[in-house]
Amino acid sequence: MSLLRTEGLTRIYGGLKAVDEVDFTLPEGEVHALIGPNGAGKSTFVGMVSGRIEASAGRVWFDGREITHLPAHKRIRAGMAYTFQITAIYAKLSLFDNVALALRNRDRAAAQEALDHVGLAERGDQLAGYLSYGHQRLLEIAMGVAQRPRLLILDEPTQGLAESEIAEFNALIKRLAGETTILLIEHNMDVVRALAERITVLDAGRVLARGTPEDIHADPAVQAAYLGTG
Amino acid sequence: MIRDLGLHLALIAVLFVLGLTLPDYHQGNMARILVLATYAVGYNVLFGYTGLLSLGHAMFFAAGMYGLGLVMQHGGWSPVPAFIAGLVSAALLSVIVAVLALRTVGVAFMIVTLMFSQSAFLTILYFGTWTRGDEGFVIPQAARQVAGLDLTDPVTRYMAALALFSVALLLVLWLVRRQEGAVLIGIRENEERTRMLGYNVLSHKILAVVMSGTLSGAAGAGYALLFGYVGATFASVQYSIFPLLWVLLGGAGTTIGPLVGAVFMFYLIDYSSGLTNAYMLIAGVVLVLLTLFARAGIMGEVRKRWAPWLP
C-alpha cells in the first residue's frame, strides 16, 4: 500500500512553475531518493508534501487520507517528520530540550535514548549551538527519528558532513529502513547509491525519470540532464 | 524540579519576612513593587518566554484596573467580585487582541499592540463621565475591605500584594515546566522548527497573549484595590514601556527576573533622586551600562554564568 501519493502537484512562483504536475507514489517502508539539479523543485515538492508550502494545484494523500489542505503541524502529528535543508535546531537550548520538543513530552529517558541513537548521549545538557556543524545535523536527524514517524523527510541531510559522519549517517538510515518510510533529497550520489531502493529524478519541476538506482544510472535522459556524460 | 520549587518558595518566604520587618517607607515601596512585578511577570510570559514584543500591555493593566474600579465605583460591587470582573475584562480584551494582533509578526505586531493600547487609552478619556479621564477617581477606604481585612492597612496591603505576586510567579513556574511552556520557548527560538515538530504555533501564541494579558490585568486590578486609585495614566504608553524595561533589566525569560528588574529600577530612581535632581541621568547611565555588560539582564546573567538550571 502506498503511504504517500501526490497527483498533479504544482507550485507556481510568479510565472515560474517550480513544481509542475508531479504524480508521485511512495510505498510503505521504502527508502526513496529525490534527486535533480539545483532548482529542480525538490525542496518545493517536499515542502508541499509536509505542508510548509501551499500547493498551487494538485492533491496529496498520506496514509489513505487526503491532506492537501491540512496545516503542517497536523501533518506532522499524523506521522510525518521533516528535517530542514539548513540546519534548524534550537541553538540556545540544551540537546535534551531539543529532543524533548521533538518527542512532545518531557521524558528524560526517551530523550536520552534518542540522543544515544546518534552518539550524542553524553551531551544532553550542552547547548545545541555549541555542537560542531556535523553534530548539529545529527541532532536534527535525531529529532526527526525521535518522533518515530511513519514518513521521514530528509532535505539534504549530508550536506556539509565529513566522510566519517556520512558513514555514520548511512548506518543510521539503514537501521531505520524497514520500520520507517524515508523520502530523501540528496546531492551526494554515494549516499543515494548506498541507501535508496528507488529514485525519482526531478528536472525543471517535472519528473524526468523514476526507478531503481540501476535504471536511473542507465537512463540516457538522466545522464544528459543531470549526471553528465562522463 | 524540586530545586526550582524550593527556590521560588524560599523567595516568597523571604518576601514574607520582609513584609513584617521592613521599615514603613520600604514596606510601602515593596507593596507597590510587588504589584508592579506581577505586571512584569505577566509581560514576561509573552516577551520573555514567547519572544513577542508588545508595546501595548498598558491596555491589559488598565482593563483589570477599570474592570474592578468601575464596578466598585458605579455598581457598588464588593472587592472580590470586582476583582473577578477585572480579570474577566483583561481576559476578554486579550482574547480579542490575540486573535487580531497575532495576524502580524515582528515590528508590525509591536505597532498593532501599540495602536490597540492607544485606542484603549482614548476610549477611557472619551468616557470621562464614568472614568473621570486623566484625573481618575479614588476608591474609598471603606470599600477596600475583604472578609474583615482592611486592605488599606500597610501590613495587610503588603501581604495581599505578596499573595498576588506569589500566585503569578508560581503559575508561570508551573507553565514553563510544562510542555506548553517548552513550546512557547521553542516558538521564541525557532518558530518554523516548532511548527514542523507538530505544534500549532498560533494557538500557543494565543495562549501566551491571554495568559500574559490576564496576569497584567490581575496586577491592574490589584493596584486599584490596594492603592485605591484608578486613572488614565495607567493606560498610557509609559505604562506599556515600564514592564518591558523591568523585564529586560531583570532578565527576559527568567521567572524571577521581572521582580528583580522592578525592584532594581524602583530603587535606582529612588536612590538617585535623593542625590541629585538629574536623577534620570544616573538611571540612564546605569541602564546603558547594564545593556552593554549584562545583555541578558540580571537574572539572565546569573543563569548564564552560575546557574543554568534557573527556569
Automatic annotation (TrEMBL), chain A:
Transmembrane segments: none annotated. Gene3D superfamilies: P-loop containing nucleotide triphosphate hydrolases (3.40.50.300). Keywords: ATP-binding, Nucleotide-binding, Transport. Pfam families: ABC_tran, BCA_ABC_TP_C. PROSITE patterns: ABC_TRANSPORTER_2 (PS50893). Residues 4-229 form the ABC transporter domain. GO terms for molecular function: ATP binding; ATP hydrolysis activity. One of its GO terms (cellular component) is plasma membrane. CDD domains: ABC_Mj1267_LivG_branched (cd03219). InterPro entries: AAA+_ATPase, ABC_AA/LPS_Transport, ABC_transporter-like_ATP-bd, BCA_ABC_TP_C, P-loop_NTPase. This is ABC transporter ATP-binding protein. The lineage of its organism: Bacteria, Pseudomonadati, Pseudomonadota, Alphaproteobacteria, Rhodobacterales.
TrEMBL record, chain B:
It comes from the Bacteria. The chain crosses the membrane at residues 6-25, 46-68, 80-100, 107-127, 158-176, 197-215, 221-237, 244-267, 279-298. It holds the Pfam family BPD_transp_2. One of its GO terms (molecular function) is branched-chain amino acid transmembrane transporter activity. Keywords: Cell membrane, Membrane, Transmembrane, Transmembrane helix. The keyword Glycoprotein does not apply. InterPro entries: ABC_transp_permease, LivM-like. GO terms for cellular component: plasma membrane. It is found in: Cell membrane. It is a multi-pass membrane protein. PANTHER family: ABC TRANSPORTER ATP-BINDING PROTEIN (PTHR30482:SF17), HIGH-AFFINITY BRANCHED-CHAIN AMINO ACID TRANSPORT SYSTEM PERMEASE (PTHR30482). This is Branched-chain amino acid ABC transporter permease. The lineage of its organism: Bacteria, Pseudomonadati, Pseudomonadota, Alphaproteobacteria, Rhodobacterales.
